[in-house]
Amino acid sequence: MLTVVPGRMGGSESYVRALLDQYRRGKGPERVTVLANRRVLSAYERYAGGRVSLHHVRAPAATANPPLRLAGMLVAHAVPGPIARQLPPGLDVVHFAATVPMPRGWTPNVVTLHDIQHHDLPAFFSAPERALRTITYDGAARRAARVVTSSSYSARRIVEVLGIHPERVHAVPMAIDHDRFQPNGENDRELLSTLELPRPFLFYPANLWPHKNHTRLVEALGRSGERDLDLVLTGQPYGRLAALLEHVRRLGLADRVRHVGYVPAPVLPALYRAARAVVFPSLYEGFGGPPLEAMACGCPVTASMRASLAEVCGDAALPLDPESVESIADSIDRIVGDDALRSHLRRAGIERARQFSWEVSALRHTAIYERVCAASGHT
After folding, report:
1. CATH 3.40.50.2000 domain residues, the chain
2. Contact 214/206 with Cβ under 8 angstroms?
3. Tens-place pLDDT, residues 105-129
4. Which parts of the chain have pLDDT scores under 70?
């Protein structure tokens, strides 16, 4: 985890934290060593213990500044010795779960590649970004002993686009923390008190990436017949919040849209439970955890069915067309105004969310590690 900046990597970091939590509980390999930069070392202290230990590696890419982070990665690729000399002895397999291999050449290794959005939606990336992802993400996947991805959709696209043999690509669904995300909360009012939330409100938890489709969502809010309904947004802004809020102002919705930024982990389930519904109009997801989180909390969901979302949501969400403002607006009206539909979605969502388990995911990862070890002569 040498290029990871805790709190800034969204679903990919949630995935790593969930796996480590299961490994710490004994649902994984006999021994797990987290190769941690200084930021990870302090942020991940609670995962150390039992089978899991943290090993500090001084890494030049351990910075939140994107240009410096990229420069650090390039330096590590060009001069791998300083990092390699810091590694503990006896590593059987290295899993790059939230980063590209740094330095190259650590074998055998497993790489997690959640999606290939830079191939499927290239317009959302600059030419340098596409080139970097092609060299790092695609190259890492092609060199890996095994590739883990979080949906059958992504596995199929990785095979088709990158030309990797299907036997080397494993679709292992992510899951949710069922201890956190559940229909009933004991202190929701206290947790939400500092946010001064409007009521009633729609909720969209998503970092401000282009594929998250915030612009069409706020336009749909303006076209919806539900005039007493507000919209609450969370997530990292990544420099795009000012432009979105200016668009909201031009639409005359400034008093109906609130962005509350990154919220602490205990607050998120309370937000789901307080929301009238979650609207998830994403254009692309390698997995798509927030709809499942909402479902587990008893919150009705209307969502895009693009990419992996159809296999994640099943029939427990009201489908919408993410490229149609009219479709998003209609889904808002239906999910807010139709009580019978809301009751059906609550029941179906809770049942759907139960089908996704981090324990199962952790054990499947462990089986992949074992196959890699066996193939390389490790036992």
Report:
1. 10-175+358-376, 188-353
2. yes
3. 677 999 999 999 999 999 999 998 8
4. 8-10, 61-66, 69-70, 77-78, 99, 103-105, 378-379
Determine the 3-state secondary structure of 99 from DSSP. Answer: coil
Closest CA to 277 of 293, 299, 306: 299
CATH code: domain 188-353 is 3.40.50.2000
Structure tokens at 331: 């889904």
Burial 302-338 (b: 16+ CB within 10 A, else e): bbbbbbbbbebbeebbbebbbeebebbbbbbebbbee
Give the residue carrying structure tokens 């330096």.
75
The three-state secondary structure class of 5 is coil
For the CA atoms of 294, 295, 301, 305, the dihedral, rounded to the nearest 10 degrees, stands at: 100
Report how far residue 214's alpha carbon sits from residue 219's, in angstroms, rounded to the nearest whole number.
Answer: 9
Whole-model pTM: value is 0.89
- Comparing CA positions, the residue from 291, 293, 55, 292 lying closest to residue 304 is 291
Give the tokens for residue 109: 């290794």
Please state the CATH superfamily assignment of the domain spanning residues 10-175+358-376 in this structure. Glycogen Phosphorylase B; (3.40.50.2000)
* Angle between helical axes of 289-296 and 339-353 (0-180°, round to 10): 110
Strand partners, 257: 231
Look up residue 66 and give its two tokens.
């994107």
Q: Write out the two tokens for 307.
A: 């990419």
